[in-house]
Specification:
It contains 16 helices and four strands. It has helices spanning 2-8, 12-41, 46-55, 57-72, 90-120, 134-137, 145-166, 212-228, 277-280, 282-302, 314-342, 349-360, 362-385, 395-422, 424-432, 437-467, and strands at 181-182, 188-189, 207-209, 258-260. α2 (12-41) packs antiparallel against α4 (57-72) and α10 (282-302) packs antiparallel against α11. It starts with a helix and ends in a 5-residue tail after the last helix. The strands form two sheets. A two-stranded antiparallel sheet has the order 1-2. Strands 3-4 form a two-stranded antiparallel ribbon. By secondary structure, the chain is an all-alpha fold.
């Protein structure tokens, strides 16, 4: 009920974003049902049916990514102070956000089922529609209810699970960055002064004899302790033993009392500042991108070009998926690098502001930028392979391409709007300090130009490398 109330009282922009999630879920569900219909119409070719179902993973991933971005920017489920007192802590808000996402995706799945049945002619009793191939609709065959239910529940389940994982409560306690060291006798602690484990095991290695003055000071301190124990009536409260050790009984010479003085240890060097999280995945992203291009090149050279009515092989699909994952992983690091490059070589106020904003927002817009670059590269490959002489696009392939492109662009725009709202306080502070609005608009233009200058050539290079093995 709480999720329904928050959904009903949300702003118009929030409703529009949730409507986008429902539309993406409807399109993905329709593609999944079309793959099921193709499998029912061609029971003798299970490999081709499985490949069609595997190609539905691209719009499914795009829809889930859009749902996660919309849930993260939802102001109704954002933690606020005082909500925990009424039972709305971070865990409860996460559950509400996951439920809201599941409701929007389920609405889209139901719409996809009604549309699929309408095209088959099951709802009106009329002839099937000719806009979609008859083998994708499985005309004249009954649809298995368990398979239909499984495919339609797939999008809401994955979307809500991804939202719950992304918005899960985290430990608010700050991590301790002080260097650990060994205390006395190897005690494990957080002291800054480091002592080796065998410092107290080497007897007499670093000792000095106590002088007579030092011994007199020790005796005087002991007498002061005894005097402190004397009560007001002159009686001792606690029995105190003689502070001096007893004389040796074996006639040996008295060994001078020694004390251990450790050599002063230098202060440890300060630990290097931890790298930003946006740059830690950059090497992994480049490695995954290279692996994806390698797999796609190997499988593309080993197979022939796709014939009309068929999709590329499974190896090409795996290669493209790895390349897209690599670009998504490298996106935040590349955005952070772009911000650093803007601030190089004696930057002015405009470049410094633009670079700082890019570095700060790299974790927000970096991954959507990488996904958009991957989709643009795939569009170039499709335009190169599926040209006038190659296989033509069908209605289902067009729907899948529009779903993937629309979801990625909507995800990027949603993340950009969320980043703008996140830095609203900083923008207001700059305006109060006297910064002209033209400077802020110029910084936004510089950021956009820098991102295009970095991601444009990168997308073109990846697209050309991916299209080479298929264009033969």
């Amino acid at each position: 009920m709480l999720a329904l109330r928050l959904t009903r009282t949300a702003h118009l922009a929030v409703h529009l974003r949730r409507l986008l999630v429902a539309v993406a879920s409807a399109g993905t569900g329709f593609l999944l049902l079309s793959a099921l219909g193709y499998a029912l119409s061609h029971p003798d070719t299970p490999g081709a049916a499985a490949l069609r179902l595997a190609w539905c993973a691209a719009p499914l991933a795009a829809a889930v990514h859009l749902a996660v971005t919309v849930a993260r920017t939802d102001p109704g489920t954002r933690p606020r102070s005082g909500l925990s007192a009424i039972g709305l802590g971070p865990g409860r808000l996460m559950a509400v956000s996951a439920t809201t996402t599941a409701l929007a995706a389920a609405l889209g799945s139901v719409a996809a089922l009604f549309l699929y049945l309408q095209l088959r002619g099951d709802l009106t009793g009329g002839p099937p529609s000719g806009r979609v191939a008859a083998d994708a609709l499985a005309v004249g065959q009954s649809l298995p209810a368990p398979a239909v239910l499984t495919l339609l529940v797939l999008v809401p389940a994955l979307a809500s699970a991804a939202v719950a994982h992304t918005l899960r409560p985290r430990d608010p306690r700050p991590t301790t960055t002080a260097p650990r060291g060994y205390g006395r006798f190897g005690a494990y602690g957080w002291g800054k002064t480091r002592e080796t484990f065998g410092a107290y095991g080497r007897f007499g290695s670093r000792t000095t004899a106590v002088t007579a003055g030092s011994r007199a000071d020790v005796a005087a301190g002991s007498r002061a302790d005894v005097a402190a124990q004397v009560g007001a009536g002159g009686g001792l409260r606690t029995q105190v033993s003689d502070p001096r050790p007893p004389a040796p009984t074996d006639g040996a010479a008295e060994t001078p009392v020694t004390t251990q003085t450790l050599d002063p240890q230098p202060e440890p060097a300060p630990e290097p500042a931890p790298r930003p999280q946006s740059t830690t995945a950059l090497p992994w992203g480049i490695a995954v991108l290279a692996a994806g291009l390698t797999v796609e090149t190997y499988t593309g050279n080993a197979s022939t070009a796709p014939t009309p009515g068929t999709a590329p092989s499974a190896g090409v699909l795996i290669g493209w998926a790895l390349a897209a994952l690599g670009l998504a992983l490298a996106g935040p690091g590349l955005t952070h690098l772009c911000g650093r490059l803007l601030q190089a070589a004696r930057p002015g106020a405009l470049r410094l502001l633009a670079g700082r904003v890019l570095m700060e927002e790299s974790h927000r817009i970096g991954r959507p930028l990488g996904v958009v670059a991957a989709v643009a590269a795939a569009a170039y490959v499709a335009a190169t392979v599926y040209d006038g002489d190659g296989p033509a696009f069908g209605p289902l392939a067009t729907l899948g391409a529009l779903l993937v492109a629309g979801c990625t662009v909507a995800t990027l725009l949603t993340a950009a709007v969320a980043a703008k709202h996140a830095r609203a306080d900083t923008t207001d502070a700059l305006l109060r300090l006297g910064a002209p609005p033209a400077t802020l608009r110029g910084a936004a233009a510089v950021r956009t130009a820098a991102l295009l200058a970095l991601f444009g050539p990168l997308t073109l290079v990846v697209a050309v490398l991916a299209a080479l093995p298929l264009d033969h």
